[in-house]
Design a protein that fits this description.
With about 160 residues, this protein is of the alpha+beta class. It has helices at about 5-15, 25-35, 40-50, 55-65, 85-90, 90-100, 145-150; strands at about 75-80, 115-120, 130-135, 135-140. It has a four-stranded mixed beta sheet with strand order 2-1-3-4, covered by helices on one side. A hairpin with a 2-residue loop joins strand 3 and strand 4. Helix 1 (about 5-15) packs antiparallel against helix 2 and helix 3 (about 40-50) packs across helix 4.
Amino acid sequence: MVISEDARARIASEIAKYPVKRGALLPALHIVHEELGHVSTQTAVELAEIFEIRPGDVMEVVSFYNMFHATPQPRHHVHVCTNLSCSLRGSRELLRALESYLSVDDHGNTADGRIHLGHEECLGACAYAPMLRVGDVYHEDLDLEKAKRILDELD
């Protein structure tokens, strides 16, 4: 059993809130993702049993949303904004310098698997460019030294 008893109890609590059991699938995926960091094939099988659906139905939802992952992920997801406003203020150069600083692989991951570095088209803070997001935390008005400090402070 991959899904813990605590997570199963939380999922049951979510299911009770919906008139149709399947309505709680997204909250259940959040619970599982919070606990395990990803939704594996075995996890999908267990969720499918809980929701009385096919494992493929679970994985369709996982693959549709970018907040869910089917494989283990680095602890920190760092995204540099690369829209026009940020690019004009040096974000693409910042991204390249951070890729070099972290020695990321072709998938944007560090060798120790701690950090994934990527880009996003717009983080919605054009007046504070260049910027990056670590998880849900935004860091604005960056230069390379500030960005390096932020990355160095990640656990």
